[in-house]
Please model this.
Amino acid sequence: MIRRLYSLLMHGAQPLLRRRLRRRGVAEPGYLEAVDERFGFYGTPAVPGALWIHAVSLGETRAAALLVQALRERDPGLRILLTHGTATGRAEGASLLREGDVQAWLPWDTPHAVRRFLAHFQPRAGVLMETEVWPNLAEACRRAGVPVVLANARLSEKSLRQTLRLKRLSRPAYASLQAAWAQTEDDARRLTRVGARVGGVFGNLKFDAQPDPALLARGRGWRERLAQPVVMFASSREGEDGELFRLLAAQRELDEAGFARRSSDAAVPGVRWLVVPRHPQRFDEVAALARQAGLSVSRRSEWDAEQGPAQADVWIGDSLGEMPLYYGLADVALLGGSFLPLGGQNLIEAAACGCPVVMGPHTFNFAEAAENAQAAGAAVRVATLEDAVREAAGLAADAPRRARQAEAGLSFAGAHRGAAARTAQAVLDLLAAGR
Model:
C-alpha cells in the first residue's frame, strides 16, 4: 500500500520534473539531452547482457570510473551500461565508454518507467554507487531477476534517521539488494539497520584515484611563480562562498592570520584566494557575488595557458576536471560543504594531492574519512568559516607546518587504497554466479 501511494506521488510529479529539467537546462544544456529517457523511453539500441552501473552525479561517476578501470583490467571485454541523474555526471561518464557500451539517464522512479528501462536494456546485474536505492526500481529488478548491489555504500546518521522514518517504504528496497559493500564499519552498521545485507566493508573507492600528474605539476608551477601563498575554497556551496567574500571585503587591518584589506590595486596582500564552486551552474553566480562584495575577479577560463592566474582579489575556478591543477596551485584548501550543515565534500583528493585541509564542523557525509584525516594530521577542524580563514592564512604562511600536513595527507591517502580491486572482484563474482 505504501509503495502504491509513493508510486502515485511520483507519477503525479512528472510534469514538475519536466519543468525543472527545462529550468536547469538553461544553465546546463546537458539536462535537455534525451529527456524522454527520464520517463523510460529509450531510442538507443541495446544489446542484452551488459553490466549496469548507476552513478547519479559527478562524485559517484568519478568513483565508478575507478571501478570500471579495475573491472576492465580483469575482464577487458566487459560491456557497460552507465546511467546517471545529473548533467555533470553524464558528461564525466562519457569518457568511460568503449565500443559496445551504452550511456543513458536512469528513469524517474515510477513502475512503468523502470520496467521499460529494464525491458529495453536487460542488464545482467546492476551496481548502484554509494546511496541510490529507489523503491520501484528495486522492486522491478527483483521481479525481473536482475541482481543489484550497492557499491562504495555509505549512509550517514542523518540519512539513517530519514530512511528509518520511511522504513515501510525503504526497508523492502534495501532488503531486495543482493549485497551492500560498505565504505566503513559505521556505514555497515547503519545499512544493516535499514535492512541491507552487508557483504563486506571494502573501503572508499575514491582513495584509489591518482591525481593527474600533468595538471598537478602545472598548478605547482604556477604557485612557484607567485610571491604570496594561495588558499583555495574547494567545492564551495551556496551560502559559503558569499560569506567568504563578505569576510574578505570587511577586512580592514592586518590581523594575526596574516591577510589585510585591499590596496589601491585591489589585491589581497598576504594571501591569494581561489574559489572553486561545487556546482558548475554556480560559476557565474559566484563571480557575481564576489564583484558585489567589491572584490575583483579573474576566472580560470580567462587565464593564459602558460602564465596562469591574472591579478585579482579572487580567482574563480570555473572549469571541470581540473581539481588536481587547483590543488597544485593552492597551499591550503578549505573544505566546501562543511561550514553549513551540508555534510561536507570529499577531502580525499586534496590529501592525495598533498594539499593541507581546513574543514568546518559539518562533515557527516564523509565522517570517518574526515576523522581519520584529522587524526593523521592531514586536516584541521575549526568551528566557523571565519576561524577557517584565519587558520588557513596562518597555515599558508607557516611553510614547515604546511609541509608536515601535506606529507601526512599523502600518507593518509596512500594507506587506504585497495577498494577498487576488492569491489571489482566482488562484481565479477556476482556475474559469474549468475551464469
User: Anything to note?
Assistant: The domain at 22-203+418-433 is CATH 3.40.50.11720 (Rossmann fold). The CA atoms of residues 149 and 313 lie 47 Å apart. The chain is about 45% helix and 15% strand. The first strand starts at residue 51 and ends at 54.
